[in-house]
Specification:
The complex is a heterodimer of chains A (293) and B (544). Chain A has helices at 16-26, 28-50, 82-118, 120-135, 138-149, 153-180, 183-190, 195-203, 208-231, 243-252, 259-285. Chain A is an all-alpha fold and 293 residues long. Chain A has a single domain, classed as Orthogonal Bundle (MetI-like fold). In chain A, α2 packs across α3 and α2 packs across α11. The two termini of chain A are 43 Å apart. Chain B has 2 domains: 4-194 and 203-260, P-loop containing nucleotide triphosphate hydrolases (Rossmann fold, 3-Layer(aba) Sandwich); 313-323 and 357-527, 3-Layer(aba) Sandwich (Rossmann fold). Chain B has 20 helices and 20 strands. Chain B is globular, with a radius of gyration of 25 Å. The chains are: A mainly alpha (293), B alpha/beta (544).
């Protein structure tokens, strides 16, 4: 098609994303959230070099001790340094949280947008597939995967992503179905724009609000899902750990050694707070209708 | 003493950007059996004035800054919440603009009607279900609902827009109010339904001796119904007086502008039809939809075997009531909806036989302007992006000259260049419609379908946009199909008119000859229902 030439580079100058960034920079709470997330990610990245102890380094004689000068966040029953374990656990939790959510986001948004936009029989088939996947018992699905492919981190991402995108697809589809009937989409159609351009430029940006809110909800639920799978022996194996696992063990010994629950709990909650503030900020920033200041 | 007396009312809104004076020192009065029309553009404070009387404004940000309002001697602005509920339930009733959203879709109409009777704020006035139903049925009959017994148990979606507005009126009247406030009650309705509703309000007012405050943006609509008129602009009462004063002895320039903006009379510019050059020839097009709402799937023949020709340079008006299929016909011509049968011959090529990919070069030559400027612009794209998209997509501009082309386009449609980086929500309705028109003419099309382009706009803005459209048609040598339910607008712009009814064209002809001698009864009714901006002739017509 000869007319296709101009389309890829229409974004220029003041675009939604640049305006959103300027607006986000003025939202101090969201910026703080973003800063905290970046801080956590950097710490996780550098953990092998900056962690005070090794994550598997035990001191059975020491056992569980409350926070002290040697062990800022105390030690667990095997005498392992909690700060180190939380730092290593953060690596796993953050990776799972972000990558599995990104997988879910990518599949879900595209799937939902295409199904909702094209509609009719295509929508029928695509959404029935979602229903079927919904109906599959999640555990059996994952155990099957583990049996067939063996245990690996990558598979964990895939398994969690494969479950979480379903809801995302439904949310996006609903949004798109109402957007599709709007006159500005019809106007784009009457300009002759190809369907994929319409979906990309006119439909998806207008679904961002709910998508962002749902994403900030998905990341923590993914982290907890990982803990659940690891707890059943389907995910991370000891001596490796993750925040979810640490919390799980912490709950068991809550009465004797509360710091084993409190500190991983704080780490997870801080991440969730940061995500929520950033999510709210992003949602406002990406909606030109909210006030500019 | 008048029934309602408002003196020096001022309402302020405390916003982030400082205090906005919505109503500034406004005084008026209404007596029993009298109709006061408050007329002004959107944002003039006419609704805020009335809402503040019933304490319906959100406070904050709204704040009554000063003034008094007395209803039958008792204070409205400083009464207790309990007393206000009694005013609202008993004495003052309100009818809103949109009959589609002011009824609860999950309750039967009857249930909603008797609600205020069986839950009356004053215990002694509460009625039993049976007597309330009797009263409601009687009232439904009075507002012109056929077979009120049976309709009592119907749900709102089973009524048409006009019928719903009648139900709303019945609901407003159920507690025998002494003052009825109507906030643009006919704006969302077709012209024939509008005439019926206006007649109904007038008749009920006579038989019940209630006072009416009628809010409207259109002086033409209130000419026949108002005894007194107050014209508002920017929160200030520009002029008030009897209907005759306002129409025949106009004092303020603003009122004169409003009157001038009412489309009246024949087209003033020359006819530019090129008789031998046919641009579009559609034959036997049918567009059907499946309606899944009932128990069985029903086929709706929105466009039923229509053939039409459009000559180059022509502005063809297409009129009809809502649901007549006129929008679908427009979309069928542009191949925006799949057609069942027929051919659309555009400058020698049958569009209906092309695939959507093959249609792309043709799309450049035909464009559409949509009705609702609030829905037809992508809220997340700046003016620049909206206007640049068609230019770049169709290869009319390239990266190096796109800025200049977009600016040129903005000049063309009368938008200041400074607005280029703004988003749609930062504009007024009229400005948005200018953006939408800019997008439509960006590809330098030969044919444009304008689907009710001015019906969502105030009268003054409507006049400006119509001027812009006429100007663009002449400058760019456009051919246009102008779809509207407003016959006065069509008359002022179209060379030829087609009347559509239930999916078919029932009458067509040159605009002025059709106006002079309509053949079909339906057309005669349509033409007869147009409100005339002249109190005397409206009244004499009402008496006939």
């Amino acid at each position: 098609m000869s007319t296709e030439a101009g389309t890829p580079s229409i974004e220029k100058g003041s675009s939604l994303w640049r305006d959103a960034w300027i607006k986000l920079c003025k939202n101090h709470v969201a910026l703080a959230g973003l800063g905290l997330l970046i801080f956590l990610c950097v710490v996780s990245l550098l953990t092998p070099w900056i962690a005070p102890y090794g994550y598997e380094q035990q001191d059975l004689l020491l056992g569980a001790t409350p926070p002290s000068m040697q062990h800022w966040l105390g030690t667990d029953v095997f005498g392992r340094d909690m700060l180190t374990r939380i730092m290593w656990g953060g690596r796993v939790s953050l990776t799972v949280g972000f990558i599995a959510t990104a997988v879910a986001l990518a599949i879900g948004v595209v799937w939902g947008a295409v199904a909702g936009y094209i509609g009719g029989r295509v929508d029928m088939v695509m959404m029935r597939l979602v229903d079927i996947l919904y109906a599959l018992p999640f555990m059996i699905f994952i155990i099957l995967l583990m049996v067939v492919f063996g245990r690996s981190m990558l598979l964990l991402f895939f398994a969690i992503g494969a479950v979480e995108w379903l809801t995302m697809a439904r949310i996006v589809r609903g949004q798109v179905m109402s957007l599709r009937k709007q006159e500005f989409v019809e106007a784009a159609h009457s300009l002759g724009l190809p369907q994929w351009t319409i979906i990309r430029r006119h439909i998806i940006p207008n679904t961002l609000g709910p998508v962002i809110v749902y994403t900030t909800l998905t990341i923590p639920s993914v982290m907890l899902l990982e803990a659940f799978l690891s707890f059943l022996g389907l995910g991370i194996q000891p001596p490796q750990s993750s925040w979810g696992l640490l919390i799980n063990y912490g709950v068991e010994t809550m009465e004797e050694y509360p710091w084993l629950l409190i500190f991983p709990g704080i780490a997870l909650s801080l991440t969730l707070f940061a995500l929520n503030f950033l999510g709210d900020g992003l949602r406002d920033a990406l909606d030109p209708r909210t006030a500019k200041d | 003493m008048a029934l309602l007396e408002v003196n020096n009312l001022s309402v302020h809104f405390d916003t982030r950007d400082g205090v906005v004076v919505a109503v500034d020192d406004v005084s008026f009065s209404v007596d029993a059996g009298e109709t006061l029309a408050i007329v002004g553009e959107s944002g003039s404070g006419k609704s805020v004035t009335c809402y503040s009387l019933l304490d319906l404004l959100p406070k904050p940000p709204a704040r009554i800054h000063g003034g008094t309002a007395r209803f039958d001697g008792s204070d409205l602005l400083n009464c207790s919440a309990e007393r206000m509920r009694q005013f609202r339930g008993n004495d003052i009733a309100m009818i809103f603009q949109d009959p589609m959203t002011s009824l609860n879709p999950n309750l039967t109409v009857g249930e909603q009607l008797i609600e205020p009777l069986i839950h009356h704020p004053i215990k002694t006035k509460r009625q039993t279900r049976a007597s309330a139903k009797l009263r409601a049925v009687e009232l439904l009959g009075e507002v012109g609902i056929v077979d009120p017994e049976r309709r009592f148990a119907s749900y709102p979606h089973e009524f048409s827009g006009g019928m719903r507005q009648r139900v709303m009126i019945a609901m407003a009247l159920i507690n025998e109010p002494r003052l009825l406030i109507c906030d643009e009650p006919t704006t969302a309705l077709d012209v024939t339904i509008q005439a019926q509703i206006l007649g109904l309000i007038k008749q009920l007012q006579r038989s019940r001796d209630v006072a009416v405050i009628f809010i409207s943006h259109d002086l033409g609509v209130v000419a026949g119904i108002a005894d007194k008129i107050m014209v508002m602009c920017n929160g200030i009462a520009m002029e008030s007086g009897t209907a005759e004063d306002i129409f025949y002895r106009t004092q303020s320039d603003y009122t004169r502008r409003l009157l001038d903006a009412i489309p009246q009379g024949a087209k003033k510019t020359d006819c530019r039809i090129q008789p031998d050059a046919r641009l579009i020839q559609a034959s036997h097009i049918s567009t059907w939809f499946n309606d899944y709402s009932g128990h069985k799937v029903r086929t709706v023949k929105a466009v039923d075997d229509i053939s039409l020709d459009i000559q180059r340079g022509e502005i063809l008006g297409l009129v009809g009531e809502s649901g007549s299929g006129k929008s679908t016909l427009g979309r069928s011509l542009l191949q925006l909806v799949p057609t069942q049968t027929g051919t659309v011959n555009f400058d020698g090529t049958d569009l209906a036989s092309l695939s959507s990919r093959q249609l792309v070069p043709w799309r450049r030559r035909m464009q559409m302007i949509f009705q609702d400027p609030y829905a037809s612009l992508n809220p997340r794209m700046t003016v620049y992006q909206t206007l640049a998209e068609p230019l770049l997509f169709h290869g009319i501009a390239n990266r190096s000259n796109i800025d200049a082309q977009v600016q040129q386009l903005m000049d063309d449609v009368g938008l200041a260049r400074a607005f280029i980086r703004k988003y749609p929500h930062e504009f007024s309705g009229g400005q948005r419609q200018r953006i939408a028109i800019g997008r439509a003419i960006a590809t330098k099309p030969e044919f444009i379908i304008a689907d009710e382009p001015v019906s969502a706009l105030d009268v003054t803005i409507q006049a400006q946009i119509l001027d812009l459209i006429i100007d663009l048609v002449e400058r760019h040598n456009l051919t246009m199909l102008f779809i509207s339910h407003d016959l006065s607008v069509v008359r002022s712009i179209a060379d030829r008119v087609m009347v559509m009814y239930h999916g078919t064209i029932i009458e067509q002809g040159a605009t002025e000859s059709l106006w002079r001698a309509p053949q079909q009864d339906y057309t005669k009714n349509l033409l007869g229902a147009i409100p005339i901006a002249d109190p005397k002739s409206e009244r004499s017509r009402a008496e006939r």
